[in-house]
Amino acid sequence: MHNDIRELEPRSVWNSFADLNAVPRPSKKEERVIQFMLDFGKSLGLEAIKDEVGNVIIKKPASAGMKDRKTVVLQSHLDMVHQKNADTSFDFETEGIQMRIEGDWVKAKGTTLGADNGLGVASIMALLKSSDISHPPLEALFTIDEETGMTGAMGLKGGLLKGEILLNLDTEEDDEVDIGCAGGVDVTATRSYSEKPVPRGVLAYELKLRGLKGGHSGIEIHKGLGNANKIMNRLLYLSTKEYNIRIAEIDGGGLRNAIPRESTVKIVVDKAHKDNFEKDLEQWTAAIKDELKIMEPDLQLSYKTITKPKKVMGLGAQEKLLNAVYVAHNGVYGMNAAIPDLVETSNNVARVILKDGKIRIGCLTRSSVDSAKADLSNALRATFEMAGFEVVLSGDYPGWQPNPNSRILEVLKNKYKELFDEEPEVVACHAGLECGILGQNYPEMDMISFGPTIKGAHSPDERVSISSVQKFWKFLLEVLKETPRA
Question: Which residue ranges of the chain lie beneath pLDDT 70?
Fold first, then answer.
C-alpha cells in the first residue's frame, strides 16, 4: 500500500479508502468485506446489521441541531470489478489493491483501482466515524454484488430503511448530478460442437490480442473503443475464408460490464500457407489498427507457433460461430431522443469462450427504455439461435426514471451553484445504478446520484482525481447541512 495515499486530503476519506482496498472484495465473494463493514460499524458503537442477502446497514443519529431533518440514506456498493493486465501478477482474492499517485490521479499497479464504488463507501465511512461534521440522521446502506447482477439491491426488502432521501454516491463526473439510469439484461448463448481430429500437415498458432483500453460498458460504450472479441472474430473470419484455418480454443473478454481488452485463440493452418497467412494476418491487423488509431493506439496482435492441439472444432460449427459473432450487435444501438448525447440502448459482446466442445458467449444489453431493451435482446437471441445456440436472458433489472421535480435535486443544484459558481449538469446516465431497483420497494424515496471524477472504470486504467475527491467531499458535506426538515 502506498503510504502517501493516507496523507492526501481529506485524510478521513483516503484513510478509509486505503483500509477498504486492503480487503479483497470481488463480486459474489464479499464475505470478508461484509464482515469488515460490520466490525467497522460496531467499533463505532453504531447499530450495524446484515440483511438476509448480505447488504450491510449502519445507522447513525443526527448531529447536534440536526434532529429535525429528514433521515438520509447514503448508499454505495461494496464489490468491485476485478480486471488486470495480462502481464500483471496479482491475486484479487488474497491481495489488497496496490495504489500509487501520479499527478492529480490515484491509480492501481496494473489492476482496477476499486474507486468504483470504493470512494463512495470510503466517504460514507468517514461520515460515520466523524465527530465534528453536521449531518441529519443517517442510514448507511452498503449493497453487495452491484457489478455482476445487482442482487444486493434486488434483495433489499422494504421496511428496513426509514429514510426519505437517498444519496447514491456512485457516479463518475464531479460536475454531474444524475437523476436517471439505464436498466440491463444478460444475454447468454451456449452450444456444444463436435470436435474433430487435427488435419495432417498443419501448423498450430496462438494469437494474442492485447493493448486495448477496455472500460465501462455503459458509460464508455459510445466512445468507439475496440472490442477484443469483435476484432479477434474479424481476424478469424478472414483467416477462415482465405486459409481454411481450424479453431481449437478461444478465450476472449471477461466481465459482462467491461469492454473486452484481450483475446487469445489457438488455431491450425496448413503448413503450405505459413508465409502468406502470416503476411495477411499482419496486413489485416495493420488495417484494423489504422481504423482504431485514435481510440486504440496501443492495439497489438502477436502470434507464435505452438504444439498442435488434440482436437479442433468442426467446420460447420465454426462457420456458424464466426457468422454469429460477426453479426451480433456491439456498441450503441440507439440514442435518447429527449436528452442530447445520451445513449439509450447498447450491447457489449463481453465474453467469448470456446474449449472442449463447448461455446459460451456473454453479452450485457442496456437501455433506459424497456421495450428497446427487449428489442435488442431479442435481436441477439435471434442471431445466436440461427447459429444453433441456446439463449438465456437473465438478471433483468429496471432503469431509474428521472424525477425533475425532486426536492433533493433542488438542494444539490442550489448548493453546487453557491459553492462553485456554476450550474451542475443534471443528467441521466447509461450505466446501471441501483436507484431504479431500490425504488421498487421504496417508491416514495427521493433519490439522487453524484460522485467524484473517475476515469477508466472497469479497466486497469481506472483512476480517480485527487482534486475531484476534495471537491466532492466539500459538496457532500454542504448538501447534508441543507437537507429538508422532517
Answer: 1-2
